[in-house]
Design goal:
single chain; alpha/beta; Rossmann fold; 2 domains; seven-stranded parallel β-sheet; five-stranded parallel β-sheet; elongated; binds 4-phospho-D-erythronate; binds magnesium ion; magnesium; 4-nitrophenylphosphatase
Length: 311
């Protein structure tokens, strides 16, 4: 029985979870739990308190646990190593990142010809997922592009095989990379402008950093056009999940920390949504006169709150 406070069918307000009964009701209602990572399970490399116990509890109750991250710096295999290093049970086929989704998009949605290449702004994990998908790429971690030197068009010979630019979070961003990506797109109308995700900021344990969306923003501004974004809230990642896992959207909940990616992703996918306040979104964005029009079904302070079920 759903307590009146959790009956989200008739309200436009999120149900604020706080009691053991609230969490027990969630456990009863949902079989598949999709977890965002940054700001939900961890902040940088610091686990959110209670996250491990709650994931164990869900698995104990035979719930399906999947991880859905916009962070394109790591491949699924890299993420498995991160989960292992943090002592959190996770299996590679439960992990979905925007690096993987971008590789799938290029190969299976765009169907980019195999003789074409991607110019990458991004890190090793993104390159790994492109390789695994059989996609040729240049740029990325190539030392020639990872320079603080000035960039001269006169000294540059573009690769005619580049058919797409893909930009993700790159903590070594520089003028050379932006200049090459800009010119590949500017000079060739057929060159796709893709971004792994558009998160404006990236939450770490010590505070916020510019996110992937802020890395690709100079390209958007210089080109005067928007890219095709692949990560949350777009449905590509849910398509990738559907291709590997059966789930009933009505009994599936997306747990996230950002309204314009995680919660919109869940709502667009017909899932229920639980917002946690350990990442990007703050209480003031979901209450009061300036509240966002994106309303999660449920809100709780932290995923660790579900430890109430252990008592
Ligand atoms: O800047 C970024 O790419 C994002 O802040 C970060 O990767 C978000 O990851 P998520 O919260 O989807 O795990
Ligand atoms: Mg997040």
């Amino acid at each position: 029985m759903t307590p009146a406070s959790l009956d989200t069918t008739t309200t436009t307000m999120a149900a604020r979870l706080s009691t053991r009964e609230h969490y027990a009701d969630l456990l009863d209602k949902y079989d598949t739990w999709l977890f965002d990572c940054d700001g939900v399970l961890w902040q940088g490399d610091k686990l959110i308190e209670g996250a491990t116990e709650v994931l164990q509890l869900l698995r104990h109750h035979k719930k399906s646990v999947l991880f859905v991250t916009n962070n394109a710096t790591k491949s699924r295999k890299n993420y498995k190593k991160k989960f292992d290093s943090l002592g959190v049970e996770a299996h590679v086929d439960e992990i979905f990142g925007s690096a993987f989704a971008s590789a799938v998009y290029i190969s299976s949605v765009m169907k980019m010809p195999k003789d074409k290449k991607v110019y990458v702004i991004g890190m090793a994990g993104l390159e790994e997922e492109l390789r695994e998908e059989g996609i040729q790429y240049i740029g990325g971690t190539d030392p020639e592009d990872n320079t603080l030197g000035s960039f001269s068009l006169a000294d540059w010979t573009p690769d005619p095989a580049v058919g797409a630019v893909l930009c993700g979070l790159d903590t070594s961003i520089n003028y050379t990379k932006l200049s090459k990506a800009f010119n590949y797109i500017l000079r060739n109308d057929g060159c796709a402008f893709l971004v792994t995700n558009e998160d404006s900021t990236y939450p770490t344990a010590e505070g916020l950093l510019p996110g992937a969306g802020s890395v690709s923003a100079p390209l958007r501004y210089a080109l005067g056009r928007d890219p095709i974004a692949i990560g949350k809230p777009k449905g590509t990642m849910l398509d990738c999940i559907r291709a590997k896992h059966d789930f009933d959207p009505k009994r599936t909940i997306m747990v996230g920390d950002r309204l314009n990616t995680d919660i919109e992703f869940g709502k667009a996918g017909g899932l229920s949504t639980l917002l946690v306040l350990t990442g990007i979104t703050k209480e003031s964005e979901i209450t009061g006169p300036n509240a966002s029009p994106t309303v999660p079904d449920y809100v709780t302070n932290s995923i660790g709150d579900l430890r109430a079920l252990l008592s």
